[in-house]
């Protein structure tokens, strides 16, 4: 009797797991992996699939957010996006994927490291008169985090609409918990998909990795920088992380506010607020497009955008990312560009904060070298910057890393910027980084010892989940 019960307990969830993977996993490799796990790993396989393999997220968005997140897969859904002539060349890629036209009249300014970014962000909060929306993955309640908390609390006291959205898993990097600390100060704070036992809600994947600060209708800040002392250098401590954040002025600020309000509505299970319908004055000559991405209606928006703009490159592709575990499609786009004579450069941190990611990416770099793609290691401290610059007029900034977790499991944000001036400034930044970096050669990878090669290959097996 007991044996029959144990078999039933094994067969039922395994069957449900196989059924679900067959119907909903679009990648045959992922589907096969999960099916094998459910069948041949009793009890543990179905549990792992329940925790890591199922996308449970469905947005309740409407209005502008619905358009921003529009990435349909059925023919009927795509018809609306493909109708009309659209935009030419690289500028048309994002339009075809999201249905969003480019927004004119913007200025995007790079802010190098927390020493430059944080003072400007804090100054904007201190000047706020109507609203402050802040979304971040990690907010540590250290010296810098406390300064932000003080500024947000002062804004609340002035009658400003202040809302802070922290990721439910990302906040576990900090103690005390930022959500508790901010609520004690009277600041409206929400957590995005927090893990909890009662009632059960275990969202280990599907993190909100976006970093956005919107102040009034005047300025927004976006990129990949979290909020902590790690990004600041003082007389007493060295900087642990380098990064580039961006200030944005102009009409794109309203689109970023729409993304935040959609996430806020999802996290609070409330009705989505209307985006402020104020006509913002042009603040420059840069054209921008917001490209949200997530395991919902926006699935694959950034991945497809990145692959396609690389495929459209004519002269150069410069990529800087902290975590590089690309899909075969992205690898193919980079290799194809190099074979067409496009100069392709990839800059990675020499010392990664996630050692297993470093091991895994070493297993794939030799293939890129085969096609004359330049590979560079940036010297410490750890480089957390995410940049893609193509030719002399296209830049993609935002929060996404080039790995499966980021591009398929997280809620991310990309911003396309069409500007020769911004591209030139960031190209100069690439040159400065490379000038102090170290170029990776084939011999370095080929001469790894057998234990190291086995270690790297084993780590690469788990790259879709790292």
Automatic annotation (TrEMBL):
Gene Ontology CC: plasma membrane
Gene3D superfamilies listed in its UniProt record: Endonuclease Chain A (3.30.870.10)
Membrane-protein topology: Multi-pass membrane protein
GO molecular function: cardiolipin synthase activity
PROSITE patterns to which the protein is assigned, alphabetical: PLD (PS50035)
Compartmental location: Cell membrane
One of the protein's GO biological processes: cardiolipin biosynthetic process
Cell membrane found in the keyword field: yes
Pfam families given in the database record: PLDc_2, PLDc_N
Primary residence: membrane
Protein name: PLD phosphodiesterase domain-containing protein
